Amino acid sequence: MTLWTNDIFQVLVNHQVRQVAYVPDAGHTHLINRCGQYSEMVSVPLTTEEEGIALLAGAWLGGDRGVLLMQSSGVGNCLNMFSLTRTCRMPLLMLVTMRGEWGEFNPWQVPMGQNTEKLLKAADILTFHVDESNRLGEATEAAARMVFEGPAAAAVLISQRILGTKTFME
Amino acid sequence: MDLDRSNHYSLRRREVVKMLLDQRDSGMLIVAGLGAPTWDVTAAGDEPLNFPLWGAMGGAVSIGLGLAIAQPTRRILVITGDGEMLMGLGSLATVSIQSPSNLAILVLDNERYGETGMQATHTAGNVDLAAVARATGFSECHNIADKKRLRSLLPQIQNGEGPLFFNVKVRAENLPLVLPPKDGAFLKDRFRVALFGSDPVR
């Protein structure tokens, strides 16, 4: 688990990502901690994910690159705010940990988890769905390049197969 | 809800914004919330360092926060409306956690949804946006209802140590539209060119 988060972290460092916005997810714990300890990054915990879309638009206006970390349910919260990204052609890099797709124990996660990629595509956002942990670094690198050299909006979807199925019996 | 109350407020929104921006520091960056605040800011002068929103409702404060973190040596002023602010109340809590000293938020509170037929917003009831901001942890929150108080707080709005929150009660009125450019990519590139020079994508 820590290996792939290190890969992603290194990509973010290489691309000079500065503002790290997030709504916590268990799967993002290590990355959130890594970014929080790195002095070149500013961590911005959000109350809801669409704040992150707006925050990172403001960041780019001011010359900062950013990333938004969230779980798949958060993508639904962002939909209208994606209009800002698209209309203004803002760069937007998102790392989405998936729920509701692989052995999910909570049926309330399934409607959004099963439609996350479809909704992102409907919003004209590039998607990189990854279900092998050793490919997460290169997928994030590919996404970050297209985002910051575009500008483009892209999401790396981190499969629940990588994260493991959550249960309440740990 | 009291739909009549805001018909009698003494402050007029265009006057307020003109007072704010007349002595504008050339380094100040403005984010204007969608609808009337965008028209008000544009009426005071369409400037490249304005980012006037035509959408993204609920996002004005978050945009201001991202900008404030990226540009710590500049003053960021978010001018928005009560309806837009109500849609993004959580963003006040997010600002409070970051506590950017260069960010000021000013709400033009006419207690109405101006673009959709002047329906009452929650501030036509008991909702006090300055009290909400205070509860999220803003140390400086002010309600402003007359010109004397606005004038006395102007230096605070322009230079006080943030994060600051000002709720300005303004008369409910429909004014002639003064529209900024509508194309978002143009507005963004114009802003970045003014800030960084000729190449907007660095």
UniProtKB/TrEMBL annotation, chain B:
Q: Which UniProt keywords apply?
A: Decarboxylase, Lyase
Q: May I ask which residue range the UniProt record assigns to the signal sequence?
A: none
Q: Which parts of the sequence belong to the Thiamine pyrophosphate enzyme TPP-binding domain?
A: 51-168
Question: What Pfam families would the database entry show?
Answer: TPP_enzyme_C (PF02775)
Q: Which GO terms describe its molecular function?
A: carboxy-lyase activity; thiamine pyrophosphate binding
Entry keyword annotation includes Acetylation: no
- Lyase: is it a keyword of this entry? yes
Name-wise, this protein is Aldehyde dehydrogenase
Recorded source organism is SAR324 cluster bacterium
What is the taxonomic lineage of the source species? Bacteria, Deltaproteobacteria, SAR324 cluster
